[in-house]
Structure formats: C-alpha cells, structure tokens
Amino acid sequence: MYLDILRSGKINTTSTSQLVNPWRLHFTFSFPHFRLHSLSKLSEIFSPIFTRAIFVRHPFERLASAYKERIATLTKDRTEPEQEYDAIRMAICHQRVISKRISRSLGIQDSCMNTIPPFEDFVRYTLLHTHTTNEIARMNYHWQPYSILCQVCKFKYNFICKYEMFNNHFSDFLKLFNISDWNIHTRNVPSGLTKRDYQNYYTTLPDDLICHLIKLYSDDFRLFNYRTDDYINRTTLSQNCT
Q1: Which residues lie closer than 8 Å to 230 by C-beta, 6 or more apart?
Q2: Which residues have C-beta within 8 Å of that of residue 158, sequence separation ≥ 6?
Q3: According to the model, what pLDDT value does residue 67 have?
Q4: 117 near 96, Cβ under 8 Å?
Q5: Which of 7, 91, 115, 228 would you label with 36, given CA atoms 20 to 30 Å apart?
Q6: pLDDT class of 99 with cuts at 50, 70, 90
Q7: How far is CA 225 from each of CA 59, 221, 228, rounded to the nearest angstrom?
C-alpha cells in the first residue's frame, strides 16, 4: 500500500489504486493493529536487513503547524470535515469563556462555533493532561511526542529524515531503495507558512508554557538533535526552566 505522504499529486500517475491520505489516519489507534503478513516473525523487523525509517519535524514547528491546520482552520474552510478538531476548538473556547466567568446565558455554544482560539489557549489546553505517562500516551497524534507515538526507543530507527531537510533526505531514501517513480518535484507545504511564521507563534507565549513544552518534548529534542533556540531565543528560559 502506498501512502501519498507528499500531498502533492500521485505517486505513480499510471496507478489506478486509491491513495490513502495519512493525515486522516488515527495512527495512535492503528499502529497496534498493523500486521506484516510477509514476515514469519514480527521480530524480523528488527533485523539489520530492514530499514526502519522515521520522518520527524522540530517539535515547536510541528505543534504550531497542527494548530494552524487543525484548530485555526474552520469547518467551512476545510476540504474534508474533521469533527474531532472542531470539538477540540470548541472545548478550548468554552474553557476560555468559562475562565472569564462569562455567563452561560450568553450562548457559549453558538459563539464558539466559529471562534478560533489564540495559540496560547491551544497550548494551555494541550498541556492540561500531560502530567503522567498515561496522559501523554493518550495525546492527539498530531502533537504527541514522536518518542511515544513512534516508539522510537523500541524500534531503533536506522533512517531518520528531517522535515527541515526533506528534499535531500527523501531523495536519499528513494536512492536507498532504488525508487524512481515517486513524484517529489511538486511538494507543497500544507500550511503555506514559513519558519518565521512558526517562530512568531511563540513570541508572546509566557516562559512557563514554553518550559512545559520543552519538558514534554525533551526526548524528541534529544533524540533528533533539535534545539529550543531554533524557534525561541530568550535568556530568561535558562533561569525559569529548571
């Protein structure tokens, strides 16, 4: 089965197979149910003859992109309905409204229907249930740490592709398997944002939230050699993130 992970056309223009959109799959719940029928033993996947590949992205850019694509895009602007994220957006709005002690008689349900919450409210909502390992294991897969979502320590991936160097790394990936019929010439960035745009999301976040994010994604930062100051450069963080 091919996955159209590039979201920019077909993998093979002559193929009649229906492409699967990986952005609609619930990996958190699907991973345990994948069965590799060509293997006599599942343990074979850990053999040196297998390439275990993972495609990663800076935690801060990934989180901001998820906000832009999933939360800050209203139903009317989507190509496909995503009720799960509509519900999350409304829950964030409700939390904000209630925290300001605005009366329920003002019609919270209607007012939140088309309200896009600020990025800070999204971050606070995301961090609400990240205090235990079990809570992190139940996070939405669009912003769950890769170390948990992809079981990095268990799978011991031997090919790591970074989104920030996607063209180069993915070309190396295709060469490794001698694949020549994969279209990589028209890749589009889903959100249409630049690195500077993503950095701007964090300029107004208070230090305490950033410190919590650093702790949440600490394994991803360490395992994939990402740095906080790629997106946030504050001298106060070294004092406040203890």
Answers
A1: 58, 60
A2: 51, 52, 53
A3: 95
A4: yes
A5: 7
A6: low
A7: 11, 6, 10
- CA dist., res. 86 & res. 88, Å (int): 5
pLDDT in tens, 171-222: 888 887 777 766 655 454 556 788 899 999 999 999 999 999 999 999 999 9
Residue 92's Cβ-count burial label (10 Å; 0-12, 13-18, 19+) is buried
Using CB atoms within 10 Å of the CB of residue 71, give its burial: 0 to 12 exposed, 13 to 18 middle, 19+ buried: buried
CA 222 to chain centre: 17
- Overall residue count recorded for the chain in this entry: 242
Q: The pTM is what?
A: 0.76
Helix H or strand E encompassing 214: helix 207-216
Amino acid at 74: L
Token digits for 212? 């919590």
Higher pLDDT pick, 66 / 110: 66
